[in-house]
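Issue 218. Parser rejects a valid record. Input:
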Amino acid sequence: MAEEKEKTIGELKGERLLERLESMFTASHSFDQEWRDRAKVWYEYYIGEQWTGEEKASLVERGQAISTYNHIKPSIDAIIGGERGNRPEIKMVGRTLDDQRIAETKTSLYKFITYNSDSDNELDKALLDTYVTGRGWKKIEPREDASTGEMDLYQEYVDYRNMFVDGMSKRDDLRDSRYIHNAVFVDEDVLQAMYPDYVAASGEVDFFDGSSDENIWVSDFDRTRVRLIETWYRDENGDVNSAIWVKGQILKEYKKPYDMNDFPFVQITLNRDLENLPFGLVKTMVSPQDEVNKRHSKALHYLNSKQVFMEEDAVANVNDARKTLALPNGVTIFNEGALRDGRVIVQDNLALADTHTRLMEVAKNEILTLVGLNAGYMGQSSSGESGTKTSLNIQQAQNVLIPVFQKIRSARHREAKITMALSREFYTTERVIRITKENGEYAFMPINSIEEDEVGVLHAMNSITDDDVDIIIADAPPSLNDAQEQFDLLMRMQQNTSTPIPPEILMRYSNIKDKHKLAAELEQYNNLQAQLQQASQQMEQMAQEIQRLGGNNAQYEQQIVQIKTAAAVDKEVSKAKEKLSKLEGAIKSS
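Output the parser choked on:
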């Protein structure tokens, strides 16, 4: 009988699929265990835990101070803050003029999703993982609103300790990855409520190795925690499937759950070594940080200690002399003639302390240099340094950090791409979403609505299912202080010229929030003022013309009155002449 052909992962079901899932997870768990151990140490350095237990014991034994001056955390925080303060906006643009309206609609929808997700803060947490350990994660996940029943997408941070990858995958976009796991621990009663078919204790473990729960200890011994694993995998045909399982049981299985056919995860990897393991910025900062702490401890020790050279009979009691010599206000009594005869020499260690202090400053600066930072970027410029010099220092640091920020830019583009692909699957019905206008006011926008035109034809309006748009990320400023530098230059030009620079131009180069919108509104206001002024001048001219015409009318009316008066007089004169003529005729006839 011919041997049965081994089934591919796309054909596996039940127990055979569970075996393959457990095998893939075990391979991922063992692949980067060394990296996870290093990442734990790197995070300890970030939070300030920078001495080992053996080192602390040795210092205590020598009476030496355990001093920690953490320069890693403010450096990493400065990079996160610098990127956050200049994070460019993501927009959708149409491919033709007819696509512009749907592009604006999708841009509003994306802002709606990021606002509901608090996406910027979620990204900051992922970037902290990236800078410290070399790898950070976000996930785009649909969730149902319990009150409305509507599905919404959320961009969420995922702890790096809960993610397990395919060791053969080298691409940040995971296109070459066959599988990926998101493993979290949940309370067993919660798991039972989520998945009624769950068999109690089938996924129970005794420890939380390799998870975000590993270092958490609580005294709740009756609280059973189970590792719930969500695995996404590509089959032999390239179709992306997923399964939710615990050790010993598959709870849910989905064949090609999304039309986009991709993992709903965004991986941000800073660097990789030759073993394909990630590493971040902290790795290079550890050695100089150790030097800062140890040299500072030695400098303090030397400042607080003295060396005493003396003969045996110089003091009455050696132990009492040791105690008083160590005190800053101590009084040490020597035997008579010991100091005069030179039998006692007290030598301080100020020279050694000064040497360690100088070397400590070198190591401190080296921490910044190794990651491309300087005092200007950290806001630690000297008081005598010019603004131009500070701006140049910031520009230099920014140039070094360009590859780092480009990694973030690419990750944000992938996140937007996945989000908008999923939006076509989860925003399919007519509904109204709340959007934020450029002026900060809220408004409501219908999507997937049907409208009737003037001739009675129905059209789909703001349809999210349309795909004729592209995703773009606005250009970031060439340096973190570039706009401020140009603004200062414009202000100096303003002082040295008689022609004022228009306020809307100054506003565009300022650091005011929503400056472009405000500048446009100011420009529109100025244009309106100019139009009003022009209209006012025209009204004044019309009033003058009316007044002039009004004067002519009075003259004409006076002339008409005079004419009418003259006509009346002529008429009366004619009547008088006629009466006089009749009277003269009567006189003559008499």
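Fixed in the parser; the record now loads. The two ends are 173 Å apart (CA to CA).
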